[in-house]
Amino acid sequence: MRKPLVLLAFLLLAACAKHQPPQGRWEGGYDGNGILVAARVEIGADGRVKVSAPDVTNADAAKPEQLQEMRARLGADLATAWDGVQARPFDFDGTTFRKPGGVAPQMVWDPNSNQMTLEIYIGANPALAVSLRPVDNFHDNPWPAG
Fold it and tell me: Which residues contact 78 (CB under 8 A, 6 or more apart)?
């Protein structure tokens, strides 16, 4: 009888334990449905998160050369403004980041692949999932080569 109670107590404590967010840097970009997003995330040893994701909307009528210019501008804006981005706390449950006390997911981390997905909320639209890849250092162009 004692072993099941000890096991139950252990499971309850483990469920309540605070999860430590992964440390590192992630970057990526989204280009589709007339929306462009350049994004960076950095999580420090203290678990605080720096995140920036400038975007362009209503780009569906843009010509390919205009899209390239927009991508380049977003990448440059992201790099230029990065030093001014303030790190802030997020609630983290082991995979999902939320604003403190919030409900809506802000980021989702896959511990198996170390991939981060940034959830972008533009207007009243559903969240836009922007896949980010882990990087050692940030690049001028956050979009993956391809």
Answer: 38, 39, 40, 52, 54, 142
